[in-house]
What does this fold into?
Amino acid sequence: MDENDLKIHLIRFIKRIGGNLRILSRLSNVPFPIITKIYKKLLLQDKLSIFPLIETEKMGLNKGAIWCDKTSLKYDTVKQLMGPLTSLFRGDLEDNKFLLIFYTNYENYLNYRDKLSTVLEEISSICEISYIRKYYRFINNEECYDFNNNIWKCNEKEVYISYASESLLSLDKKDVELIVNIQTNPYAFHFYSGLVHFKHIKKFVKGFMYTLGDTNYLVTTKGDYFYDSPYLLWVVELDNSTYISQYHVDKSSLTKLTTELKDQDIIISTAELTFAHGFSIPYEIFKSNKWVMPKLVVE
It folds into this structure.
């Protein structure tokens, strides 16, 4: 195999087990020194990023979404709006608009929505608060990437779908801590494979999503449909039958993508903590082997 074929071969296994080089070498039947060389090039030249695909719905953690088209709140304040329940934040580079996704269950969501609506209206924020009922995650076919020209030459994906659920599989504190460790360092996923609790969490961790290239721009859209693209990473379907979609793109593809999505609400962020932030599962509310949803205090 030439170098590009080795990269494709390696990504095929990274999607399954993350970035543990020893195990990647064993599973792929490629000598460890070669794996190390190719992996380094994937990270430094091809800008590989990987994200664990964790089905939190099976853990009893569903999600809600706050989309604000206008707000006077600072982004640092927004990130603290839901306390430990915050899952993901996207803030626009130019306009005072944002998306905040938070962990919840349906009963608590109704209480959170009412309180948030009141507070956001008082500060003249124009916001929509919704319950996420379906989650789509997309993993590109690694053979569709042209490593010589740093572009996607075709658009083929695996699709993982999860649904909001009130039933959950059992887990304990050590399971939760292990999942947080994997979220914090997805490259060490199979480092934990010898642990008893690794067997417990395999039913929640479905593999890894990934991106390639200088995908420094994060485009988040809301509308009646989602646009299929190699840059599409995930989509959530809300309880009002609209969709929020997330694309990770490079600068050269940004204009083309936003033109395709001109009839949707759009938030454009950069991959830096001021405008884009992901949070681990809220291990601090896991008490006595169950999630104890906190009361929401909005000041």
